[in-house]
Amino acid sequence: METILTQLAQFVIYVISSLGYVGVFLAMAIESACIPLPSEIILPFTGYMVFLGRFSLWQATIAATLGNLFGALVAYYVGLWGGRPFIKRFGRYLFINEKELSWTERTFEHHGELTVFIGRLLPIIRTFISLPAGIAKMKPIKMAIYTVAGALPWCLMLIFVGQKLGENWNTLKPLFHRLDLLAGILILVLFGYWIFKHQLLEKIRRSKSD
Q1: If you placed Cys at 130, which of 36, 66, 76, 208 could pair as Cys (CB 3.0 to 4.6 Å)?
Q2: Separation CA 198–CA 93 (nearest Å)
Q3: CB-based contact 60:21 (threshold 8 Å)
Q4: C-alpha pair distances (Å), 198 with each of 98, 100, 207
Q5: Considering only 71-80, 82-91, 135-144, 184-193, which range has the smallest mean pLDDT?
Q6: pLDDT digits (tens, 9 = 90+) for 103-162
């Protein structure tokens, strides 16, 4: 994991150093399009560039936020155009049936704004939250507004922290690595519970049919 993070950090440094604000935009777009390129590396290094005087704090924040929005829209439309048919066809192999899919759609219909907003502030989840929003056919304008509402403070906070840390911007990596690990464990536990619940329900159905 440490080797992977080091390689990702080198990639981020190269892209942002070479392309400037465009590099910030592209890196955050990748991070937001269901590709796990950690913003916990992208944004503090961007803050370091602010510290060096190569970037402006607010211009960097806007570039990062717009990149986040662009990547989110890509993931959203992938979910909108291809997600639901895929889930309906192959969902049973993922323990997702029509009932769960309908529940997801209702959740985003009634609480989509809050789901997207909070999801943008959580490690790992922020990378993937736009895909289920598209599958649930959440209105794209709402998705975009709440993506920006969640992404803007996240980007500003981490860029600002990176600016204050200066040459020590990379000291944040171990902290965020632990947070990502905790979030990953929680997701695995929830997924394990999901599988257990479906297997239990399936056994109950079979026992009743017998």
Answers
A1: 76
A2: 11
A3: yes
A4: 13, 11, 14
A5: 184-193
A6: 566 666 666 667 777 777 666 666 777 877 888 788 889 889 988 988 899 899 999 999
Q: Domain limits of the chain?
A: 2-171
Q: Which two tokens stand for residue 87?
A: 């889930």
Average of pLDDT values for 162-188? Answer: 65
Contact yes or no for 76/140 (Cβ under 8 A): yes
**3-state DSSP of the chain:** CHHHHHHHHHHHHHHHHHHCHHHHHHHHHHHHCCCCCCHHHHHHHHHHHHHHCCCCHHHHHHHHHHHHHHHHHHHHHHHHHHHHHHHHHHHHHHCCCHHHHHHHHHHHHHHHHHHHHHHCCCCCHHHHCHHHHHHCCCCHHHHHHHHHHHHHHHHHHHHHHHHHHHHHHHHHHHHHHHHHHHHHHHHHHHHHHHHHHHHHHHHHHHHHHC
- Joined tokens for residue 66: 């717009």
114 to 20, 62, 99, 147, 172: CA distances (angstroms) = 32, 22, 22, 10, 28
